[in-house]
TrEMBL record:
It comes from Winogradskyella flava. The keyword Cell membrane does not apply. Its EC number is 6.1.1.19. Residues 5-86 form the Arginyl tRNA synthetase N-terminal domain. The lineage of its organism: Bacteria, Pseudomonadati, Bacteroidota, Flavobacteriia, Flavobacteriales. Keywords: Aminoacyl-tRNA synthetase, ATP-binding, Cytoplasm, Ligase, Nucleotide-binding, Protein biosynthesis. This is Arginine--tRNA ligase. It comes from the Bacteria. GO terms for cellular component: cytoplasm. PANTHER family: ARGININE--TRNA LIGASE, CYTOPLASMIC, ARGINYL-TRNA SYNTHETASE.
Length: 601
RNA sequence: GGUGGCAUAGCUCAGCUGGAUAGAGCACCUGCCUUCUAAGCAGGCGGUCCUAGGUUCGAAUCCUAGUGCCAUCACCA
């Protein structure tokens, strides 16, 4: 049983014995550093049941606990706060129960119902940028956190592979491409296709200028440029299944997928299943027809189909155009249903999509509920803030985007510069160094993005490079590397670590627990709860900030207490074992953030 | 205009279901490498928690109103 739960029973018993009153619950908080004690009982809420001076009541309860509870070593009362000191042996005993768990903090028995997490979901006409990076890191991490919290998880995305945007790239490539391929240009496929998307835009703008000089209004010109009309014609041909257009579409999308795959690999994320809009956009229609029969939807005289959500405080939402073609909503309805068909064990889904689409998902979830799907109540929009530059929004057409591949490379380069300056790795091979630079660079980037609350926007200044000191990924990685160094130098194998730490608890009087050691164990004790909270709140930031606190405590311990130079063998082994556990916890925490930890740095 | 989100130190961010004198990092200043990796540690400076009301023993946290920024309100996605 958790310390808090145990104490709660005793505090209730104390109140019953002393004041003949029943408490419903007891409020605890961690004791602030400036006071003696380990855990604090807040007396104020009891005043509803027990009348009197809170300080006096605290005093009486404290005395009762000291007299009746072995765990309680002492107490003090400050105003209405009862600070309880816990026997050091409690912490040593607790540590003994976790020190050999490699999966500490994770729940291994999985729920029957799985969760599907969607993230990334890019368009196929341009490379991934910093905005996608946030999406991908968040989605991956939340998926891993959910796994760690005891869920089976499927990672997926929906690839927006059809529509006018890809036709624009296709057309530009046809016109200006001279048969270029990723191979012939040595460009990543997504970059090559993205270039033609830009080419299209250039030609388009030029044609607008021409038409305007011929007397058309700008508005007219935008609709009438030959190149746009041709792109629209291409889309019609695609929808009609024109062989040549489809072949070109397949070829160019193939290039993009290869490029994306490379980027995902570089970032270190993966997917269990891909969905393509081109394959699912028709599926929703069936259910629109179904919903029309059951009255969920209504048809206007022009043939368009709507869902009336005014009673739910929202608007009327179109789900099918007058010409019978699908809109975004149609396809999302179809995709959701398809996913449950494919994976019947899925009981809920998480959509990692920017907060600009909050309204869309509110509507989508509501419609799915109205259609009567029981899983529809377990849909969650993991809505996150935009990543903005000091100059404002990123705009691909204006060339202000921060490219994902470039960014990853720059982070590794910075890691390399710093590492070389510090010069601690002279005996590493070039290959080993390269891997390490990437680990550190990515660690910096991922931590930088994941440590902020998803719903808040991020301001990213490319000129001010991401820090490697303080509350950063590399700082935490560095601490991990230090711990590994100690483990190597201690020459203690696991058997010794296990047995001697146990011996310490038996002979506890010999050695008292150092403040810094106790603090570390308290911090370790929090980890499983942090994972559960992070899963409930879909927030990797909670894990990131926890890890930082843990690491700060460790570094303080490390600098103030000699580990390998401890006075007794007992102490030394205990401290090494404690360090090892902290290292394992860092590793576990970082694994759900998708960040690797190095043996040295 | 309707709806939703955000607002905490010069900058970037924490602050769990309301609890003690609001915490970190960066930057700036002071110390600490002959002892386990100084990407570190110990300390200092720095706050009208956007504003005004309200709820209560107690509010950065909850409620109301206002201000500012962002998003959204398409037969776009």
């Amino acid at each position: 049983m958790k310390l808090q739960d145990t104490l709660e029973l005793y505090v209730k018993a104390a109140v019953k014995a002393l004041f003949q009153s029943e408490l419903e619950s007891v409020e605890f908080q961690a004791t602030r550093k400036e006071f003696a004690g380990d855990i604090t009982v807040v007396v104020f809420p009891m005043l509803r049941v027990v009348k009197g001076n809170p300080a006096v009541i605290g005093e009486q309860i404290g005395q009762y606990l000291e007299d009746n509870v072995d765990l309680v070593k002492g107490y003090n009362v400050v105003k209405g706060f009862l600070n309880v000191e816990i026997e050091g042996s409690y912490y040593v005993d607790f540590f003994n129960t976790i020190k050999d768990q490699n999966t500490y903090g994770f729940i291994e028995d999985k729920d029957d119902k799985a969760v599907m997490v969607e993230y990334s979901s890019p368009n196929t006409n341009k490379p991934l940028h910093l905005g996608h990076v946030r999406n991908v890191l968040l989605g991956y991490s939340v998926a891993e956190i959910l796994k760690a919290s005891g869920k089976n998880v499927y990672k997926t995305q929906i690839i927006n592979d059809r529509g006018i945007h890809i036709c624009k790239s296709m057309l530009a490539w046809q016109r200006f491409g001279n048969g270029e391929t990723p191979k012939s240009t040595e460009l990543k496929g997504d970059k090559l296709v993205g270039n033609y998307y830009v080419e299209f835009d250039k030609a388009y703008k030029k044609e607008i200028t021409e038409l305007v000089s011929q007397g058309q209004s700008e508005e007219e010109a935008k609709k009438n440029t030959p190149i746009l009309l041709e792109a629209q014609e291409m889309l019609r041909q695609w929808e009609a299944g024109d062989k040549d257009v489809v072949a070109l579409w397949e070829k160019m999308n193939g290039w993009v997928y290869d490029g994306f795959e490379e980027t995902y690999k570089a970032i270190g994320v993966d997917f269990d299943k891909y969905y393509y809009e081109s394959q699912t956009y028709l599926l929703g229609k069936e259910f629109i027809a179904e919903g029309l029969k059951t009255g969920v939807f209504e048809q206007d005289p022009d043939g368009s189909v709507w869902c009336d959500l005014t009673k739910d405080g929202l608007d009327r939402k179109i789900v099918l155009r007058a010409d019978g073609t699908a809109v975004y909503m149609t396809q999302d309805i179809g995709t959701a249903i398809q996913r449950i068909k494919d994976y019947p064990d899925v009981g809920g889904m998480v959509y990692t999509v920017g907060n600009e689409q909050d309204y869309h998902f509110k509507v989508l979830f509501l419609i799915l509920q109205k259609l009567g799907f029981d899983w529809a109540k377990n849909l969650y929009h993991l809505s996150y803030g935009m990543v903005d530059l000091p100059s404002g929004k990123m705009k691909s057409r204006e060339g202000t985007v921060v490219d994902a591949d470039d960014l990853i490379q720059e982070m590794a380069d910075t890691a390399e510069d710093i590492s070389k300056e510090l010069g601690k790795l002279d005996d590493y091979s070039e290959d080993e160094k390269k891997v390490l630079y990437k680990t550190i660079g990515l660690g910096a980037l991922k931590y930088y993005i994941l440590k902020v609350d998803p719903k808040k926007r991020i301001l990213f200044d490319p000129k001010e490079s991401i820090d490697f000191q303080g509350n950063t990924g590399p700082f935490i990685q560095y601490t991990y590397a230090r711990i590994q160094s100690i483990l190597r130098k201690s020459n203690l194998n696991d058997d010794v670590l296990l047995s001697t730490a146990t011996a310490l608890s038996i002979n506890f009087d010999e050695v008292s627990l150092h403040e810094k050691e106790k603090q570390l164990i308290k911090q370790l004790e929090q980890f499983p709860e942090v994972i559960q909270n992070a899963a409930e709140q879909h927030s990797p930031a909670l894990v990131a900030n926890y890890t930082y606190d843990l690491v700060k405590d460790f570094n303080s311990f490390y600098q103030n207490v000699s580990i390998l130079g401890a006075d007794s063998e007992h102490e030394k082994v205990f401290r090494v074992a404690l360090s090892k556990s902290v290292g394992q916890t860092i590793k576990n925490a970082f694994s759900v953030l998708g960040i690797d930890v190095p043996e040295r740095m």
